[in-house]
Amino acid sequence: MNLALFDLDHTLLPLDSDYEWGQFLVRTGAVDAAEFDRRNKEFFAQYQAGTLDPVQYLEFALGTLARFPRPQLDAMHRQFMDEVIQPAIRPSALALLRRHQDAGDLTAIVTATNEYVTSPIARALGVEHLIAAKPETDAAGNLTGKLLGTPTQGAGKVAHTRVWLEKLGHTLEGFERSHFYSDSHNDIPLLSVVTHPVATNPNATLKTHAAAHGWPSIELFND
């Protein structure tokens, strides 16, 4: 058995699910449009530039989720999946996932986006294992707005992946072949510790880094 890891946003999806969730909340009138849109775009620009403070962002994102009772939040997320995510799932991304799954590879999505937003997306993509930022919930299942543990971003993806593998009785180095597909230079730490890093729909910084290190680059969304 080999290992296949995938970033989510702009890798398996041609969009950023966290950003689009925020835009969905604005569009549906669930949050104050001007203020939320301003902060959401500000954080997204910081992410693209590699200057985002992940804890600060997650507190903002999870704090927004905590405003809503869980039944209302879940209904909103179902609408988000129907209107935004499902239409964005491309056959090319599914084919890449299925190729690894059909080969018997242990497959997981490793994303900096929080688990509440991404769990239904992982299910829609047919991926059982998800490594994502974990929101705290109360006894009733409502989100509190707090983060459990540490962010799954940058070097945090490496740490969380190692913990997940350990729980399954594996180590990262125990796989003869380990793939990680990502679009972003923010994921260079995890790309650097697998045997087969693949720059996938790479941004300019990652594309340059990949070329310098002899990593392959692929484009999934040219159709």
Description:
- The structure is a single chain.
- With 223 residues, the chain is of the alpha/beta class.
- The protein has a single domain, classed as HAD superfamily/HAD-like (Rossmann fold), CATH 3.40.50.1000.
- Helices cover 48% and strands 18% of the residues.
- The protein is built from nine helices and seven strands; from the N terminus they run βαααααβαββαβαβαβ.
- Strands 4-3-2-1-5-6-7 form a seven-stranded mixed sheet, sandwiched between helices.
- Helix 1 runs antiparallel to helix 2 and helix 1 packs across helix 4.
- The longest helix is centred in the N-terminal third of the chain and has 17 residues.
- It is globular, with a radius of gyration of 17 Å.
- The two termini are 31 Å apart.
Straight-line N-to-C gap:
31 Å
Reading off the top of the CATH hierarchy, the class is best stated as Alpha Beta
The low-confidence runs, each spanning 5 or more residues with pLDDT under 50, are none
Whole-number count of domains = 1
User: Proportion of β residues?
Assistant: 15-25%
Q: Rg, please?
A: 17 Å
Q: How many H/I helices? A: 9
* SSE sequence, one letter per element: EHHHHHEHEEHEHEHE
Major beta sheet, strand line-up:
4-3-2-1-5-6-7
How many strand elements? 7
Predict the CATH topology: Rossmann fold
| CATH homologous group name | HAD superfamily/HAD-like
- Report the CATH architecture: 3-Layer(aba) Sandwich
Class based on secondary structure composition and strand pairing: alpha/beta
Give the % helix: 40-55%
